[in-house]
Specification:
Length: 84
């Protein structure tokens, strides 16, 4: 299995960072009869980091396998971090 990651990020404002990442990997089981298992994966993730007061950050992103048409396979990630 081969993997590749392509991250892109930028901070248009002091309190906001935009993030985009594309993860690629080859199929887990090429000999499978299940289409999802024998297909390559193109996982697209996009989101932002939002700076809150007192060294706190809110991260939000949505992730989807853009190559799969079998079902809505969207994942939502939310993270709150506090630096000490």
């Amino acid at each position: 299995m081969r993997k590749k990651k392509i991250p892109i990020s930028g901070a248009p404002l002091d309190w906001l960072a935009l993030k985009l990442q594309l993860d690629l990997h080859s199929a887990f089981y090429r000999d499978s009869d299940v289409v999802v298992l024998k297909s390559d994966v193109f996982q697209l993730t996009g989101g932002f980091s939002f700076a809150l007061p007192r060294d706190t950050t809110l991260d939000f992103c949505v992730s989807d396998n853009i190559a799969s048409e079998t079902s809505p396979d969207v994942a939502v990630h939310v993270d709150v971090r506090k630096r000490f």
